[in-house]
Amino acid sequence: MAITGNIQRGSIVYIELSPQAGYEQGGRRPALVVSDGIVNPGTLAQKFAAIVPLANTKREYPYHVPVPENEIEINHPEEGVVFLTGQALCEQVKALDMNQRNADVVGQVDITSEFYKKVIAIVRSIFF
């Protein structure tokens, strides 16, 4: 189990979210890194980062932020280079061990973009 790529703020990672409980997102899916990369880089075994899962849901909830159409390219593990689609599920922000969840960096969001700023504003509103 290992991380593929350099995880940093704004990275899009494909990550294994299972096991999950209830309505939490599960399976291998894209997620947006909202922490400043790996939050504990000095440790050898554990590599935690805070992520927001992304899903191709059509639900319009206040804590969901639509991914801008045809703007964010990713290197999809099965489809090659494609545009990222779906919504950021900000209410499901969580810190996960990137090693144990087999994180693969597949893209990067501009952290000055309106999309990223809105995600961060919602995540902050949840905790502060």
UniProtKB/TrEMBL annotation:
It comes from the Bacteria. GO terms for biological process: mRNA catabolic process; rRNA catabolic process. The keyword Amino-acid biosynthesis does not apply. InterPro entries: PemK-like (IPR003477), Plasmid_toxin/cell-grow_inhib (IPR011067). The keyword Repeat does not apply. One of its GO terms (molecular function) is DNA binding. Keywords: Toxin-antitoxin system. Belongs to the PemK/MazF family. This is Type II toxin-antitoxin system PemK/MazF family toxin. It comes from Paenibacillus nanensis.
